[in-house]
Amino acid sequence: QITAGTTPSSHRTWHLPTALLSQHSTHLRNAATDPSHPSYPGLSSLTLPTTHPSTFQTFIDYMYSNIYSQHKRSASYHPIHSHASAWILGFALDTPVYKTVALRCLYNEVVPLALDSSSGVLQSPIRPSDIEFVCKETASGCVLRALLFDAVAAHWKQSEVLNLTYDMEIDTPWLAIYNTYPDFRTRLSNSLKVGDAFRYDMLRPVDDYVA
């Protein structure tokens, strides 16, 4: 059985075939078969304390159908957070194909605004909480961070980055994110030299992040 949930009240447990889990996840396959794996001797009881049940349900649906589809009717659905959560789960479970699909879907959410020269911080679908979540759940240098940091830089106007960089009388959650995470701060600071007409170029082709 596998239990997912970020709080005791949100815990949900599934009883899933070991063969199905092993087929899609190297991590879970090793947990069932490799004596040196920390979760060996199997999947009789495995807990994912940082995974929301809806995130794991999306993975279950994918395992049974080979179709990646988010539950968009949920009141709490937010595409950036949902696709990022799927990638993070895929990274933890070592599921290369699932990670790639999630990352491509995330890219599709952020690329339209990057190509819009009239974009700005208020139009961006990326929230401060999305960046904070990803920074807490991933290591510096991972492709998920790179994609979202580049998307923020591409979405924002040069003047908006300037205001944040120099703390020009702004009161925004973005300032806390900027001051807390050095790699995010570095990415935005480096984007200052890029004018509004060319900021779209800071979001690279999707294959650069997938590779």
Automatic annotation (TrEMBL):
It comes from Lentithecium fluviatile CBS 122367. This is BTB domain-containing protein. It comes from the Eukaryota.
